[in-house]
Amino acid sequence: MPLTSFSYDSQHTQEFNDSALRYYRSPPPNAQLGYGYEHWIRRPEERSRVDSLLKAVDRVTEGQHKKMNLAEVGVVAWRGVVTRLLTAPYEDREGWEMNVMFINGTLYLEEHRTETQIMEKNNIKPQHRKMMYYGYAFESYCTTEHSRPAASNQSDRSSHNSDASGWGGHVDTNIQWCSVVKTKLGDTKFIIGGEVDCSDGQYKGTTDTFVELKTSMAIRGAADEEKFERKLLKFYFQSFLLGVPKIIVGFRTPSGQLTTTQSFQTMQIPRMLREKSGHKAHKSNATPWDPSMCLAWCHQFLTYLKQTVVQDSDDDPSHQKDSVKEEVNRGHSPNSTTVWRVSFVPREGARVVKLDKSEVEEVVNGEDRVGFIPRWYWDKVNSATHTSHQSSVRSSSAAVQPAQGAVGGWRI
Predict the structure, then answer these.
(1) Domain boundary assignment for the chain
(2) pLDDT digits over 227-275, tens only?
(3) For residues 360 and 365, what is the distance between their CA atoms, to the nearest angstrom?
C-alpha cells in the first residue's frame, strides 16, 4: 500500500511532489540504445544513505500526513536492501554488507559501501559503463513527461527535436521518482522506498499503473534463456516489493540495438517458470528459483537479526539498569548508538557483528549522525513516546540458512 511519493530534481534535491514521474509509451522498433550517451549526466556513486527515506517516514508517521504509527513498523529500508535479503538464497556471485540500527523496536537497514567500492563504481570500464547506459536509454525511449490515455500510449515522437525517433530526452540520473509503501512479512511490518520507472496511464495514488523497465541481451539459445530466467528473480522481487504489477523487458543486441520487448505480469512470473519447467525433459532444468524459499529465508534471518540485537543490548554492561532491561524484554530498544554489520558471503550465509568505535566512526564519516541515522531523525524519535509499541522476538537458531515453506503476509 502506497504511503507517499517524492521526486528528486536535476540537483537531486528531494521534493514531495510527482514532478519527476514519467509515463509509459511503447518504444520505437530497433531503437539505438547508445543514442545520447555523450550527453548522459550520471550521478556519482556515494554512500547509500537512508536520509530521504526517513524524511518520508517522518512525513507519514507524524502530523497532517500521518498514515500509520511508527511504533508498528518492524523494518525501514530501501527496496534494494530488502531485495538483497530476499534473493540471498540464490546469490552465488556477489557478497554484500549492510549496517543495522535498532531504535524503539524498529530495525533500520542501510547498504554498506566502502570507499574502495564507491571508487570502483565511479570508475567502471568503458564497456560496462556503456551497457549500464543502455538501460537508462531504454527508459528514455519508453517514457514521456505527459500522461496518456491507457488505450493509447503512443506519444508524439517529434519532441525534443531529436534525430532519434521516440527519444524521451537525455538521461540525467539525478532525476528520480520514488514511491514509499508499507507491506508485511509474517507479523513484521515494513516501510520500503524505491524508484519507480513510470506509470502506464494517469497515476491515481495506487500502484496499479506502475511499470518497471528492464533491458537484457537478446536470447539466442538455451544458455541465454536459463540466464534470463535467473535474472527474473531480481526483476520479480524488485517489482513485488513496491507493488509494481508489470515489468517490460527490452531485449537488445550486444551493440545496443533494441530487437523486441516483452511484458511480464509480476505476480505471474513464478507460475510461468513452474509451468515452463514442467515441460522440460531434464530435472536439471527445473524451476530456477522458488520465491517461497526466499520469503522464508528473509523472515528467518530478520527474526534472527532482531533476536541478536536485542540480546546484545541486554548483555551490554552499559544497559544493565533494571528499567532498560525491562524495555529490552518487552521488545523496545534502549536506543544506544550501537551499529551492527551484516555480511553475506555467497554459498556460506550471513553473519552479524557489532561494530567497534572506530568502525562506527567510519560509518558516520564525519557527518552529523548517530551511526548512520541523521541527527535530526535520531533526536526526533528519541524525544517521542512510543508507549504502544510491541515488538515480537521469535525464537530462531543461530544458523541462518535457506528455510522451507512460505510465511504469511506477502502473497506469491
Answers:
(1) 2-47+117-289, 48-112+290-412
(2) 999 999 999 999 999 999 999 999 999 999 999 999 999 999 999 999 9
(3) 9
